[in-house]
UniProtKB/TrEMBL annotation:
Pfam families: Glyco_hydro_16. Belongs to the glycosyl hydrolase 16 family. InterPro entries: Beta-glucanase-like, ConA-like_dom_sf, Glycosyl_Hydrlase_16. The lineage of its organism: Bacteria, Pseudomonadati, Bacteroidota, Flavobacteriia, Flavobacteriales. PANTHER family: GLYCOSIDE HYDROLASE FAMILY 16 PROTEIN, GLYCOSYL HYDROLASE-RELATED. Residues 1-23 form the signal peptide. This is Glycoside hydrolase family 16 protein. Residues 19-256 form the GH16 domain. Gene3D superfamilies: 2.60.120.200. Keywords: Hydrolase, Signal.
Amino acid sequence: MMKNSEFWLAALILTLFTFSVNAQKVIFEEHFDGNELNMKNWSYEEGDGCPNLCGWGNNERQIYDRQYVTVEDGKLVIEAVKKDNKYYSGKINSKDKVEFQYGEIEVRAKVATGQGIWPALWMLGHDIAEVGWPASGEIDIMEYVGREPNTVYTTLHYPAHHGENASSKKTNINNIEEGYHIFKVIWTAENMEFFVDGNSVYNFVPDEYDEEHYPFRKPFYFLINMAVGGNFGGPEVDDSIFPQKYYVDYIKVTEL
């Protein structure tokens, strides 16, 4: 007969074994600790997108400048301002530094608000320099446009459907402008499912699994930015709203 102490020891070992089997491996985790951006993970994008894609290809008004990207109290802060009759904001990416294929992506963020504001957290295929867009694929984890209160967009761009014809879901979420919210994507070789605050809002399953319909079987990297105006965020901009701040608390990617 097993002694009581032996029983509890066996139970503990079984629990630890079960936990180790079920625990998800963390692929990437960013909590924006310290007082500056971790340049091992991130790079700045700056300027107005010229000469190739002026207005960043979307007729956006902002000029990106690293001084409008800061780290404060464990948060990434991207600020948009109007100064000397020009708009400035911030944009960072993890290209060539943090790139991965598949996983559960979770982001906790607080959007900026107001007509003309367009904060986003998204991903591009690592091969964009070779194949271009939309062949690279684009995963928009979260886009918010100030002209549409209580609404978030989750979108995929790829050769068969991109731009205004992208595979997109517009979701009404009351008070999305208040406080922090958790945006999540479960990305596999077969589908992409988007969540907001634990609720599934869009499950994308392609008609065909080829580069035209599903170019999402390769590594992608992150982009975080706040645009001003543009084809999607504007075109009108309410100058009375500035300055505006967009906060990202953390990003976590775990293996499925």
